[in-house]
Amino acid sequence: MDTSTDPVPPTQNGQDKDKEESKTTEETIDGVPEVKDEDLSDDDRQLKQDLELLVDRLEDADTSLHRPALEALRTHIRSSTSSMTSVPKPLKFLRPHFARIKAIHANISDPENKKFAADVASLMAMTFDDDSRECLQYRFLGSNEALASWGHEYVKYGPHCLSGAHVQAAGLNPTNPPSLSPPHPHLLRHLQAEVSAEYKVRVTAEPPAAVDDLIVLVEEIVPYFLQHNGEPDACDLLMEVDRLDLLERFVDENGHQRVCLYLLSCVPYVAEPEDQVLMETALKVYLKYKQWPQAMQMALKLNVTETIRGVFKQCDSKLMRRQLAFMLGRQQYYFDVEEELDGIEDDDDELEKLRDLMANTFLNESFLALGRELDIIEAKSPDDVYKTTADGAAGVANSARANLASTYVNGFVNAGFGMDKLILGSEEGAHWMYRNKDRGIMAAAASLGLVLLWDVDGGLTRIDPYIESDNEYIKAGALLAVGLVNSTVRNEHEPALALLQDYITDKKSIYQVGAIQGLGLAYAGTAHEYVTELLMPVLESTDNNMEVLATTALALGQIHAGTANGDVSEAIVQCMLLQEGPKLLKETYARFLPLALGLIYLGKQQDAEVVLATLETLEGPFGKVAQIVVEACAYTGTANVLKVQKMLHVCSEHFDTSKEGAEKDDLHQAYAVVAISMIVMGEEVSVEMALRTMQHLLQYGEPVIRRAVPVAMALMCASNPDLAVLDILSKLSHDADAETAYNAIMAMGIVGAGTNHARIADLLRHLAQYYSKDADVLFIVRTAQGLLYTGKGSITVSPVHTERTLVSPPAVAGLLTFLLGLLDAKNVFLKDGHCMMYSLALAMYPRILSTFDEELNPLNISVRVGQAVDVVGQAGKPKTITGFTTNNTPVLLGYGERAQLATEEYKAITPILEGFVIVQKAAEDTQTA
Fold first, then answer.
1. pLDDT tens, 329-365?
2. Using omega within 30 degrees of 0 as the cis cutoff, is the peptide bond preceding 878 cis?
3. Domain boundary among 164, 183, 202
4. Which UniProt keywords apply (predicted)?
5. Is residue 863 part of a domain?
6. How crowded is residue 607: how many other Cβ atoms within 10 Å of its Cβ?
7. What one-character DSSP code corresponds to residue 290?
8. Is residue 383 part of a domain?
9. What are the phi and psi torsion angles at 257 (to 5°)?
10. Residues 708-760: pLDDT tens digits?
11. Read out DSSP for 500-547?
C-alpha cells in the first residue's frame, strides 16, 4: 500500500521538542524542506528574523553597518547549541540566503570585512551537498582563523543528513551535542572531504596545479584530529593527499600506537607500492618513540635485510635486544650478530647469548618444559592415535603401506619429544625399519629427525649409528634426519653441513636426495653462501636425474626463501630451460622446479617481474604453471586484490578435454586455485572472501580445479579448524574422484594439525573404517590422523604468527612443498616421493607462550588467554581479548588467541605476548596504581 499520503501521527507527550520544530511545508531549497514561520517557536522565529535583518544590513549602502552585522552573524553561528539531529538553527535559517551572502562577499570592498564574509559563506556552504567545494574555496578567502574556533558547525553532514541516524553513525549522541570546546573530531570531515576532492582535481589536471595551500590546511587539520581521538581520519586525509611523511611530525606519544595499528590494518587494502609506504611510515613512528618490538615487527613485514638489521642495531637496550632476538628466531631470520654489532656491543657473553636466542637454541628445552607442564611427555604409539579397536580398520595392519603410514604418524605425534615407541623406545627399533620397503625404510630412518626435532646436540648422537648403516635406504634416511633435527635451529658448529656435504655428489642418487633435502631443511632461510656453492654445481650438472635436480632446486629455494637472490634464480631458470618442455609435465618431480624458483621471491612482489618476463619464453602448460607459481609466491601474504582477480580469471578459462593430452593443458588452473590462498594468507577478511570463492569454484569449476580447492583451503586454514571449512572437506572426502578425496582428507589433517580437534578426529576415524579396504586412501587417512596430533597437540604448522601479522618465509616454504605435492598425490606421496612430507618440519613450531626473567631463566607467571579482539580505530584502551581463561606459563596459544599478563607484579617488555617473552618486575608505584 502506498503510504506517501498518510497523515503524520500526532506528537506524543514527552517527545523531543525538535520533532515539532522540524515540521515543514512542501517548498524546498535544493531538495531540503524550507522552514516556515508558522512552524517555529517564538524564540526560533525571533532568531530567524534577527538573522535575516543582519543579512539585510550587509546589503545596506552604509558600510559602517557591515562589520557589526558580520560579527553578530559569526557570534550567532558560534554560539549555536541546537540538537545535532538537524543542521544547526543559524545555518538552517540562513540557508535560503546563501546566494545573497555570496553576492555580498563579492561586493564588499573592505579587506577585513571581505574575509569575515568569506568565513560565514564557508560555514554556510556545508549545508549544500554538491561538488562546488565552496566550503574550501571560501575558507581560503577567509580570515584563516583556527578551525577549532568554529565549533561543531564545520560538519560533514549536508542537507540530506537531517536525521539522527547519520549523527549516530558518526559516533555522536543526538541528545547530548558536543560542547564548543573542544569540538568533536568527526565534525571537521566536511572540510576534509573537500580538501581530498580538490587535491585529486589538481594533481590530475594538465598540467598539474600547485597544492601547497591545500597542504598548509592539511597541516592544520591533522593535528586537530590526532588530539581528539581522530587518528583514522588523520591517516586517511594524509593518504588521500599523498603526504604520509607528515604523520611522523604530528603524532604524539599517547596516540602513536593507535595510528600505527590503523596504518597496519590498511596495508592489505591499498595497491603497491602504497602498502610499503604505510609500513615504512609505521616503522618510523615506532622508531621515533623507541617501540622496538613493534618496529621489528614492521621491519620483518617489510622483509628488507638492511631495515631488519638496522632496527636491531639501533636498539639501545640490552634486555630489549634479547627480546628482538627471540622475535627474529620465531621468524627464522638469522644473521651474524658479532658482525652487525661490531663496535656497539663488546660483551662477548652477551653476543653469544643473542646468537643463541636468534638461533632458537631455547626451543627444545622450552618445548619439553611445556610438555611436562601439560603432562604429555610420555611417548605415544600409532595405535594410540588410530584407536583401531574403535574404527575396525586393523585388517591391513601389517602391510608395507600401513607400516609406512605408522612411520609418519609416529614421527608427527612424537615430534620434538625425543622419544617414541616404534624405534627409539623399542628394543626392536631397527627391525621396524625393515618392515617397510625401499623408500619406506628411508622414511622410517628419517622419522628419527622428527622425533628428535630441535635437539641438535642430543639428537645427532642418536642418529649417528644409522648413518653408518650398510643399508642404503637407512643411511639415506639418516642423512635426511640430520637435516630435520637442525631445521629451525642454528648451531655455530654447523654439524649438518659437516655430516652431509660429502654426500651431495655421491654416485648413489638416493644419498644425494637425502643429503640435499636435509641441507635444505637445516639451512632454510639462512641464505648460507657455502651451502649454496656446494649445491649450485649439482643443479647445473646434466648427469643428474630429475629427482636430484628438483630436490637441489627446492633446497636452494628453501635456503634463499624471500631473499630474491638473482644468481640462484638464474640457475633454476636455466635448469628449466634446458629440459624438454613436454617432458617436464611427465616428470613427477619437475613440478617442484617452479616452486623452488618462487620461494626465492617469496613476498618480494615487484622484484619478481624480471624472472616472470623470462618465464614467458617457456611454452606450453609448464610455462603457465611456472608463471603462476612464481607470481603467487611473490605476492604471498599481501592480500593483493588485483592478483587474486588475475588468478580467478585463469580459473574461469575452459579447455576441450576430449582431445588427447588435454588434461595437461588445464594443469595451471590447479596452481591458480592454490595461488589465491597463497596471496590472501594471514589476512582475515581476504581469507573469508577467498573461502566463499572456493565454494563457487567447487560448484562450477572443472575437475582439475575441484581437486585443488581442498589444498587451497588447507593453506588458508593451517592449524585453524574452521567449522565451515571442515564441513566442505568432510563432504569432499567421499568424492567420487579419488584425487579430490585424497586432497580433502589430507587437508583435514593440515587444518587440524597440532590441535587434537575432536570433530576432525571423529571424522578421520570414520574415514579409516570407510576406506579400510583401500590401502592408498587408508594411507592418506592415517597420515592425516598423525598430522592432527602433531606434537601431541602442542605444535602448529601455521606460518602466520605475531598476532597474525607476520608470515615466516621458511615456514611457508615447508608448507607449500607439502601442499603442492598433493596436487600430484598419486605420483608423489603414494609412490617414492613421500619423504617430501618431511618438509612440513619447517612450518612446525610450538604454539607456546613461555616467559623468562631478565637473566633468561624460565619464569612461571599467571596469564589470561582468550580470543583476540580487533581494536583498530577504537579510542582509549579497549579490551583486546574476550572469553579468556587464566593459566600459568608456559601455556598453549590457539589460532586467533591472544594473551595478557594476569599479575601486576611483572610487566612484559613487549606488547606482543607470543612465543618467548621476557618480563621484569614492575615498579612498586605501578603495582599500587
1. 999 998 888 888 877 777 888 899 999 999 999 899 9
2. no
3. 183
4. Proteasome, Repeat
5. yes
6. 15
7. T
8. no
9. -65, -45
10. 999 999 999 999 999 999 999 999 999 999 999 999 999 999 999 999 999 99
11. HGGGTT-SSHHHHHHHHHHHHHHTTTS--HHHHHHHHHHHH-SSS-HH
